[in-house]
Amino acid sequence: MLESHDERPDSAATERAEEMLDRAGERVGRFASLLGQRVRRAAALAREEAEDMWAEAQSMRRQDPS
Question: Given a cut of 80, is residue 31 above it in pLDDT?
Fold first, then answer.
């Protein structure tokens, strides 16, 4: 007859895995934060460019003699 083995993982291995996941989470969090800042900056630049184009188009429209 086979004896049942305790199927719980080794606590040291579990602690190491948790530590690795925590570090990975921190890295992903930092990366996401930097990415968010860059996206906001790009959106602000695109919005500014669109506003400049709109103002220029309106200026040209006002100057059109027809």
Answer: yes
Rg (CA), the chain: 29
CA dist., res. 8 & res. 49, Å (int): 59
Of 41, 43, 61, whose CA–CA distance to 53 is shortest? Answer: 61
Chain centre to alpha carbon of residue 9: 34
Structure tokens at 38: 């860059």
40 Cβ contact partners less than 8 Å away, ≥ 6 residues apart: none
What's the whole-model pTM score?
0.59
